[in-house]
Amino acid sequence: MPHRILIVEDQPDICKLIRMTLEFGDFEIHEAHDGESGLNMARAVKPVLMLLDVMMPGLLDGYQVCQRIKQDPTMAHIKVIMLTARGQASDLAMGEAAGADAYLVKPFSPLELIERVEGMVSELA
Amino acid sequence: MNEAFRQLFDQVKSGIVWVQRDGTVRYANKAAVQLTPCVLGRAFFDPVVDRTVKAAGQDLIKLPFAFEITTQEAHPDTIKAVVIQAPVGSDLMLVMNNVSEERWYSSALENLIGYVEAEMASPIAALVDRLPEVARLAGGGSEKPEIAQLISDATQLSAKLGKLRDLVSVFGQGAIQRDERLLLPGLIQRALDEVKPLALARQVTLATNGLDAELPAVYGSEPWLAKAMSEYLEHTIRSAQPGGLIEISIQAIGTRVLLRARNQGLFVSSHERRSAFVPFGVGDGADAGDARQGIGLALSQRIVEQHGGSVRIEDDFDSVDFVMEIPAGAPASQDAQLSVEQAQRYARDMSSLLARSMAKRVQGGQPAPQSPKPSPTKA
What we know:
The complex is a heterodimer. Chain A is of the alpha/beta class. Chain A has helices spanning 12-22, 35-45, 62-71, 89-98, 110-124, and strands at 3-8, 27-32, 49-53, 79-84, 102-105. Chain B has helices spanning 3-10, 30-35, 47-57, 99-137, 145-171, 184-201, 222-239, 270-275, 296-306, 336-364, and strands at 15-19, 25-28, 65-70, 78-85, 92-98, 180-182, 205-209, 218-220, 245-253, 256-264, 310-315, 319-327, 377-378.
């Protein structure tokens, strides 16, 4: 059975490119386009892994979504890879503080992305 | 022509000509005669106007029809003219405005902004930075009251010049970088600390509510938003009655964060409401000696607008609210360049991704993928 992956990304072009990348693997892919719907969808579909954009419009940005997921015992097991154009040390530290499992800086290598995802998913198996 | 129309058009600043479809002038207000020569009962003297109006009368052009003419002078101004249908009957109207004057004022303002940016911004910044050191070297002027007064005057002047420099800076588009992640409670607390001396001096009490709540992050320029907050609070304190109470609250509503400073027992006139956001403005009714509102709230408004938000004044029967609204989260429109770069990375990795996928499927004894799979859900 394919693993469920949730992409939370507000930029449609980037979201599409992530989906196209993941389609080279064996995943069931879900999408959300802002923090709040991403959090709700995580509760609903219970993915094994989330690809989470940091900068999103609305009430919850990526750090806040990640924090809430990791603080919720029913979702804390979800692996979170944060995706962001902000690659400074302070940004990485914020991602770590929020509980992110990995951090990819945009523009990221799709090859690296799928290898990270498959690596993390295989750890779960 | 109807007398009511005549009286109405005589009051209008734009040039207005009521003209028959054959191009004969029936009425022209004073402004129109100054913009293009015309006589009642005759066609227009300016051949461009005459030709255009006659073409409109023969339904050869679609109304409203805008065109430009010039005044008949040695140094002509540009006039923007529009032919429209008359409000009654089948006649036409020509409405004219001198756009050279608007352009002149607009370029004068732009030049002034450019001059302040290029020639004055650095000296003002240097003055603001060095003044405390000068005051320290002068020993605070404690021995000579003239020096103390001079330092005090210079400090006030540098504060005003600093605001002017900031106002000029925010009028430049793209001056504000907007991708720092900011938590508003901390930003507000810093602004409150900054304006505390003013509040104490005016015996105004600042009560805060909701600053400890969990609020969404906002994205923007930290120094500029901090400046917007302190200018906004400063204006609120200056507007309050001495000894008054200002209740400051913050909450997330929809996709925006709302900061509200409520002045109890304060009345704001329509004049104050209008002039509060106009830099340097006092309105025509003010006496020469009246203190000007300054540029604080206008500066704050401009900064917040550049972050996609707004600053406004709301009033109830017994209170006045100064409201600042800032979009929650990152700006909706993000870098298109990033999408392009990401697509380039995808194209670069495509062959490796394909080879990797093929190898995996051969190992697993599965056929290679033919087309993308359908997406189960989207939010």
